[in-house]
Write a structure and sequence with these properties.
5 strands; binds 1,3,4-trihydroxy-5-OXO-cyclohexanecarboxylic acid; 5-stranded parallel beta sheet; Rossmann fold; about 30% helix; about 15% strand; globular
């Protein structure tokens, strides 16, 4: 079975307590459980609040068939994460729970989309399920 790496960035371990209008009510564990139900793939889940740890995990992506990543606030700041993603040659799906393009101006700066195959925004936790659907299509599984 194909293996998918799922990376969540800073403060996403606080989902459920964060602004519910933007991020919904589900915790990160709820989202992980939802994703596991989509048992077309084997998933490895990783969350970190530290940029370098996220870069190192992306570098492990060579052992996987696909990547789903929500870099959270690092989306708007991290050239290091951009560069790590650029050299990773597997399908890469960027997910944001919120309508990230229609919030504060500083969230319109995005270092990630240009090095991902697909970006999903504004679907709350369902964005992660959409990412799985995208990968199923990518691998001709539906
Ligand atoms: C986020 C959007 C980012 O701007 C924010 O910093 C996050 C979460 C989202 O999922 O909507 O932490 O990536």
């Amino acid at each position: 079975m194909k293996k998918i790496l799922v990376i969540n960035g800073p403060n996403l371990n606080m989902l459920g307590r964060r602004n519910k209008d933007h991020y919904g009510t589900k915790t990160l564990n709820d989202i992980i459980e939802m994703m596991k139900q989509e048992d077309y793939f084997i998933y490895d889940f990783f969350q970190s609040n530290h940029e370098g740890d996220i870069v190192s995990k992306i570098q492990e992506g060579f052992n996987y068939d696909g990547l789903i990543i929500n870099p959270a606030a690092y989306t708007h700041t991290s050239i290091a994460i951009h560069d790590a993603l650029e050299l990773l040659d597997i399908p890469k799906i960027e997910v944001h729970l919120s309508d990230v393009n229609n919030r504060e101006e500083f969230r319109k700066i995005n270092y990630i989309s240009s090095v991902c195959d697909h970006t999903i925004t504004n679907l709350r936790e369902d964005g992660y399920i959409e990412a799985i659907k995208y990968l199923k299509k990518f691998f001709n599984m539906i």
